[in-house]
Design brief:
The chain is of the alpha+beta class. The protein folds into three domains: 132 residues, Periplasmic binding protein-like II (D-Maltodextrin-Binding Protein, domain 2, 3-Layer(aba) Sandwich), CATH 3.40.190; 111 residues, Dipeptide-binding Protein, domain 1, CATH 3.90.76.10; 209 residues, Roll (Dipeptide-binding Protein, domain 3). It is globular. It is built from 14 helices and 21 strands. Strands 2, 9, 10, 11, 12, 13, 16, 17, 18 and 19 form a ten-stranded mixed beta sheet that branches. It has a five-stranded antiparallel beta sheet with strand order 1-5-6-8-7, with helices on one face. Strands 3-4 form a two-stranded antiparallel sheet.
């Protein structure tokens, strides 16, 4: 995509009914405007500021409200979004974006190049503590030649920049709303997306309503979206069957066969880039010793983890880079070896094992329980402390907190490994809550983001994946499929793209 010009026109809504047509009179299969979509989520969304959050549940809400310069299509190729056209110079240092005219924020003001400039300046400002700051380490200048032209210049190439600008973490926000909210957009989100934020009531719902001024004419079809947090998977499925919600996410794998056989429901199984993992805090003993981390890796039988927790749904993998990704390295699976685990613990000074605490979010408690049983066999006593998602994201995940010994979450890999690996594995990564700090790995990750030669980048990330498996603070349990179920009135619902970005712009209800 470098060195050329890509022009993307407006994404017209296919088959939108004529203005005079009533929803009830629309021909079969033709979208009907109106209605409220009730979406059953697995947890409360935490931080809702697009530049600050690392919460997937929050991203699903943010994705309806905010937009970026670019967007990934179903093949994960960057295409124009708020930018109608974009051009990259042959040397990879200059990026020029021609913005769409007439795009309005939810407060009614037109979006201009000044808003793009402000948004990136906010991201790179250290006081913001933005998640996406690492994407702009080589930023040299930001220019706005006119209200609809934005130019960004780098001091040296950043290979995955187009993918970075398609991330929700680089969403375009209005300066006046940030200032009005005291610098944080969690209480009142204002974007350019298809839906407007109304309210968030903890444990009840997040409410969004249709943006009537959306730049994609005729869209969205829905009048309203209610995100309803239902932590218990069985209750979530029951609510779907009884019609309390229209779609549920994170369905338990044990229910997949029954839902697939139920003609009143539809099952979507999406090939995922999610990788459930164990995280060890390398800044604390005993996990600061790589031998302890390797002992724990060797003590685990992850094939049993896959069967017991995911009912066989998913794929064992040492690395977080999924099959089909050109950067994936096939690394032989670590087999359970309890004798090796005990020997490594003894070498590290723990011949009788040790006691530790596993801080687990509700959704990760089943994983923690399997780990608890398996580590007991090599002398490690694990106490499970259940914490709410909001506590985890506020006390465990921030790199300035890291208040845990052992924990775990489910991360989502991106198409370019830099966007996955640098932030969580580099010693300066803003999401490196395992405190992994390996100079050799740091250098590989630094080189991988500036070298544009594909063959050389593959070599770099091959080595980085080896170090990730052998020495980091992570153990990858498996690659997880995404399981969704919906009621028959939900139309044009395809599940998320593989980046796990759930979009409802073109979803409609046949009722």
């Amino acid at each position: 995509m470098t060195g050329g010009v890509i022009s993307v026109g407006l994404l017209a809504a296919s088959g939108a009914p004529a203005a005079a047509a009533s929803p009830a009179a629309a021909p079969a299969g033709q979208p009907k405007p109106g209605g409220t979509l009730r979406y059953g989520t697995g947890s409360n969304s935490s931080e809702l500021d697009p530049h600050l959050t690392g919460d997937v549940a929050a991203w699903q809400v943010i994705n309806q409200i905010y937009e970026q310069l670019l967007i990934l299509d179903e093949k994960e190729t960057p295409q124009g979004s708020l930018a109608e056209k974009f051009e990259v110079s042959p040397d990879g240092l200059s990026y020029t974006f021609n913005l769409r005219k007439g795009v309005k924020f939810h407060n009614g003001r037109e979006m201009t190049s000044a808003d793009v400039k402000y948004s990136i300046e906010r991201i790179v400002n250290p006081k913001t503590a933005a998640r996406a700051v690492i994407y702009f380490e080589t930023l040299k200048s930001l220019d706005t030649p006119d209200p609809y032209t934005f130019k960004m210049t780098l001091s040296k190439p950043y290979a995955p920049m187009l993918f970075a600008l398609a991330r929700l973490e680089t969403a375009i926000v209005p300066k006046e709303e940030v200032e009005k909210q005291g610098g944080n957009l969690s209480k009142m989100m204002v974007g350019t997306g298809p839906f407007r934020f109304v309210e968030r009531v903890k444990d009840v719902h997040v409410k969004l309503v249709k943006n009537p001024d959306y730049w994609k004419k005729g869209l969205p079809y829905l009048d309203e979206i209610l995100y309803k947090p239902i932590v218990d998977q069985d209750i979530r499925l029951t609510n779907l069957k009884t019609g309390e919600v229209d779609i549920i996410q994170d369905m338990h794998p044990k229910d997949a066969a029954a839902v697939a056989a139920d003609k009143s429901l539809a099952l979507q199984e999406v090939v995922s880039t999610y990788w459930p993992n164990m995280a060890m805090n390398c800044s604390r003993k005993p996990y600061s010793d790589v031998k302890v981390r390797q002992a724990i890796h060797s003590a685990l039988d992850r094939s049993k983890v896959l069967q017991l927790v995911a009912f066989g749904k998913g794929q064992l993998s040492e690395t977080m880079v999924p099959p089909g990704n050109p950067f994936r390295l096939e690394i032989p699976q670590w087999k359970q070896d309890k004798a090796k685990a005990k020997a490594l613990l003894a070498e590290a000074g723990y011949p009788n094992g040790f006691e530790t605490v596993y801080r687990a979010m509700p959704s990760t408690v089943p994983l923690a329980e399997v780990v608890q049983a398996q580590l007991k066999e090599v002398g490690i006593t694990v106490k499970i402390e259940r914490v709410e998602d909001t506590t985890w994201f506020g006390d465990v995940f921030p790199v300035n907190k890291r208040n845990y010994d052992m924990s775990g979450a489910t991360h989502a890999s991106k198409i370019d490994p830099d966007l996955t690996m640098w932030d969580i594995l580099h010693s300066r990564g803003t999401k490196n809550y395992t405190a992994t700090s390996i100079p050799e790995l740091d250098k590989l990750l630094d080189d991988g983001r500036t070298i544009t030669d594909m063959a050389k980048r593959k070599e770099i990330y091959n080595e980085a994946q080896k170090i990730f498996v052998e020495k980091s603070g992570y153990v990858t349990y498996y690659l997880q499929p995404l399981l969704y179920a919906s009621r028959p009135q939900v139309k044009n619902w395809k599940g998320p793209v593989s980046s796990a970005e759930v979009r409802f712009t073109e979803v409609w209800l046949d009722k």
